[in-house]
Amino acid sequence: MMKVTVNDIARVAKVSQSTVSRVLNNYPQVKQETRKKVLEAIEELKFSPDFVARSMVTNKTNTLGLIVGDISNPFFAESAKIMISRAQEMGYDVIISNTNHIDSNMDHAVQTLLSKRVDGIIISSASRGSNKVKELHDAGFAVILHNSSVEDASSNYVVLDNKKGAIMAMDHLVHLGHEKIAFISGPSKYLNVYQRYAGYQEALEKHGLPFRKTFVYEGEFSYDAVYWFVQRMLEEKERPTAIFATSDQMALAVMDAAAGKGLKIPEDLSVVGFDDMTISSNHYIGLTTISQHKEKMALLALEHLISMVEKKGESADSIHMTLEPELMIRKTTGPPKKIT
């Protein structure tokens, strides 16, 4: 089957090739009747525009890349949905790449997206020492970090005040009367995790509470690994009365492990998460957590990236945005039960 061309559409619609081109590029100065004839000819001939050829002329593909650490984590999935919906409204498509929190996968994802000629990239999970982000930024490529930041001060980012959020969570538990508070962390190579851990430690010191290394999980973001760590910790005589998790997903693993030990929440164990994913507010879960204002954060990152893409070549200040956390008190926290 021969490829349909603009000439074929012009012939069937009985208009000039330039008119067909104006309709394809959505120019407003085309009569409605003429536009209708061209669109009917496109439909009849089953024409598909050569976007690659067009992008070579405009130097734009109207495509963005989004790199996430774990698409099965509801925080990333929900944020991606928000970004994709808004991008489509603004005339852009989004290609998602999942790294499984592996640095080499992140580097590969960047190369793959560049090979697909995306106009810009949002990175939602990057190690704080990542050189790839700096390389892209220094090359003048449109890139912004979302829910993540790196040690390079010039990189663009939209993040939460993670340390402040962690202190808020800890203050809430201490004010309820908890003194034995465990922390489910994650790899400290991620700056947001590192900052939440720092907030946990600072809060302990502020309230005159001892730091117990056995109360801290620092492994990978693994539901199963957290589950078994918590189960073992709850078997100890000196077990915590509350657990603060660095993400809502890990908080659910904590609740699962507690249930496996026959403990009731919050009567026997208080739990606080971090993210405020949609399911956390479900009546049957009611997870007390720190809200990252995920919709606001996602939209800010997406809209700033598109602004960078559309103003390419113009000098602009770096984007450094830090959002304020919010404590969402629900039903997984309460006063500690005396452990005998």
Q: Report the CATH topology name of the largest domain.
A: Rossmann fold
Strand content: 15-25%
- Number of domains in the coordinates? 3
Query: At the fourth CATH level, what is the homologous superfamily of the largest domain?
Result: Response regulator
Count all strands and give the number: 12
**Oligomeric status:** single chain
Succession of helices and strands = HHHHEHEHEHEEHEHEHEHEEHEE
Low-confidence stretches: none
Note the total helix count: 12
**Shape, please?**
elongated
Look at the helices and sheets and give the structural class.
alpha/beta
Average of the residue pLDDT scores:
90
Task: Give me the secondary-structure topology.
Blueprint: H1 6-13, H2 17-24, H3 32-45, H4 51-58, E1 63-68, H5 74-89, E2 93-98, H6 103-115, E3 120-123, H7 131-138, E4 142-146, E5 157-160, H8 162-175, E6 181-184, H9 191-206, E7 216-217, H10 223-235, E8 242-245, H11 248-260, E9 270-275, E10 288-291, H12 294-310, E11 320-323, E12 326-328
